[in-house]
Amino acid sequence: MDAFENVTAVKKANVYFGGKVTSRTILFPSGEKKTLGIMLAGDYEFSTGNAEIMEVLSGSMDVLLPGETEWKTFAAGTSYTVKADSSFKLRVPEIADYCCSYLPR
Fold first, then answer.
1. Cα dihedral sign for 40, 85, 65, 78?
2. Pick from 42, 35, 46, 39: nearest CA to 13
């Protein structure tokens, strides 16, 4: 899906790591929530509440998922899932564009 229709976009940006990661929240009539964002090159660690599906739209991310010991690379056009109530690490070698979908509990 290249575009979302009939949604509400929250104007205020989500800003992390001194502005190196930013996103905007998109709310759907069904209650579904997504964020669309950009990550600059860098190393990051995020925590989750809900489970998340991270879709890489451009660039790439090296990801260390919860409970795993090996990093995996996800390039544009791929996605990965992160368990609820966990944390994961990212190494972003270049600007990455992403869409994060929050799964219901």
1. negative
2. 35
> What was the pLDDT predicted at 2?
85
Kindly state whether residue 87 falls inside one of the protein's structural domains.
Answer: yes
Q: How far apart are CA 55 and CA 20, in angstroms?
A: 18
Distance CA 54, CA 34 (A): 10
Question: Domain with 75 in it: what CATH number?
Answer: 2.60.120.10
Any domain includes 49: yes
| Neighbouring residues of 57: CB distance < 8 A, sequence distance ≥ 6 | 76, 96, 97, 98, 99
Phi and psi (nearest 5°) for 24?
-125, 140
pLDDT of residue 77: 97
User: Using CA atoms, how far apart are residues 61 and 94, in angstroms rounded to an integer?
Assistant: 8
Distance separating alpha carbons of residues 83 and 77, to the nearest angstrom = 20
Regions in the chain scoring below 70 on pLDDT: none
